[in-house]
Structures are given as structure tokens and as C-alpha cells.
Design a protein that fits this description.
Blueprint (H helix, E strand, L loop, with lengths): L1 H22 L11 H9 L2 H17 L3 H21 L7 H17 L6 H21 L7 H23 L5 H22 L4
Helix pairs in contact: 1-7, 2-7, 3-4, 3-5, 3-7, 3-8, 4-6, 4-7, 5-6, 5-8
Length: 198
């Protein structure tokens, strides 16, 4: 059941990526002009990458319904944070919140924390606000806010899928240890950003 759902989601995302390649070739006004910039923004920033992979990884570790719920909650709430950033609404300690997301999510995975679904969704949602706000404030003026937002949501979704894919390793005991080790690595990367080492 999970494998079929995963295959469907993966196929849908591949189709979106193929459509985006053509869409990003256009210039001028409209929804397509910011897509590529928004898409690459989360993928090229390691502070974003580790947290977004961690969301998928933790969701896979927790199993159903967290497997699909956490990767849905994060981009939805992130889009709200992005809108706040575009509108210029202040949010204190954005970079600290982003770095802490890697530390906290990584530690939750490393210590195999099995939080109730509402707690997990709340933690993911809170951190999503910081990531979204950062994306929104960095919107290039020449680009469509809608295209940029769709781009960073799709890019984020792909990173969640990477985490979910790695999370399937938890089906074996050795895989569980590898996933927990990945959580520790994610926490270390988050800590490096938190303390200004990265």
C-alpha cells in the first residue's frame, strides 16, 4: 500500500518537474517567471535541505499517517510564512529558527522519538513558518510571487521525498540505525548553522 502511494507521488512530482522545465524558459510577467528561482532556493541552501529532508525522514520513521501528513503540513504552512515574508511582516530570529529546525528534527530522528501525530505536525508547522518567511523575503523583485511560491513548494516537496525514500531503510534493524545516524548528522549540520560555523 505504502509503495503504491509512494510511486504515485513520485510520478506526479517527476511530471511537475518536466512541466517546469518548459515553463521556466519563458520570460516576462506571469506565474512562470519566478518558478526556477523559487524551486532552487530550498535545494541550494544546506540549512533548508537538512530540515526538509528531516521532515520526510521523520515522517517515514513515524509511519502512517505521519508519512504523508508531515510532508503536506510543512509546505502548506511554509507558504503562509512565505506570504508573510513577501508582505514584509516581521518575524524575529528567522535564521535561528531555520538552524534550530535542523537541530531539533535531527535529534528527534536520532533519538527515535515517536511523538503523537498532533505534536509532530505542530513541531513541523512551527519550523515551516521560519523557512517560508526566509523564502518570501528573498523573492527577487522581477519575479512573480506566485511562480516563486509554487517553485519553492515543489522544491521542498522533492526534498521531503528524498527523506521519505531514505526513511524506507527503517524496515531493517541496520536501516533504523542508519536513519538514526542520519538524524544525528542533520542535527550537527543544523548546529553548525546555529553557531555560525557553516
Amino acid at each position: 500500500m505504502i509503495n503504491k502511494q509512494f510511486e504515485r507521488v513520485l510520478l506526479a512530482l517527476v511530471a511537475l518537474c518536466l512541466m517546469s522545465a518548459g515553463a521556466s524558459a519563458h520570460t516576462g510577467e506571469g506565474i512562470n517567471t519566478g518558478f526556477a528561482s523559487g524551486f532552487w532556493h530550498p535545494i541550494l541552501g544546506w540549512d533548508h535541505v537538512v530540515a526538509m529532508v528531516a521532515v520526510g525522514l521523520w515522517g517515514a520513521f513515524l509511519g502512517m499517517p505521519a508519512l504523508w501528513l508531515l510532508p503536506v503540513v510543512f509546505p502548506l504552512v511554509m507558504a503562509l510564512g512565505g506570504a508573510a515574508g513577501v508582505m514584509g511582516m516581521p518575524l524575529p530570529a528567522v535564521e535561528t529558527g531555520i538552524a534550530l529546525s535542523g537541530v531539533v528534527l535531527g535529534l528527534l530522528i536520532a533519538f527515535a522519538v515517536r511523538a503523537p501525530i498532533w505534536v509532530a505536525a505542530t513541531i513541523v508547522g512551527v519550523f515551516a513558518i521560519f523557512h517560508g518567511h526566509a523564502h518570501g523575503t528573498e523573492l527577487p523583485e522581477a519575479f512573480s510571487a506566485w511562480g516563486y511560491a509554487i517553485g519553492f513548494v515543489v522544491g521542498t516537496g522533492l526534498l521531503h521525498l528524498v527523506g521519505i525514500g531514505l526513511g524506507f531503510l527503517t524496515r531493517s534493524e541496520a536501516g533504523k540505525m542508519a536513519v538514526r545516524g542520519a538524524g544525528g548528522l542533520i542535527a550537527l549540520v543544523g548546529a553548525a548553522f546555529l553557531f555560525g560555523v557553516a
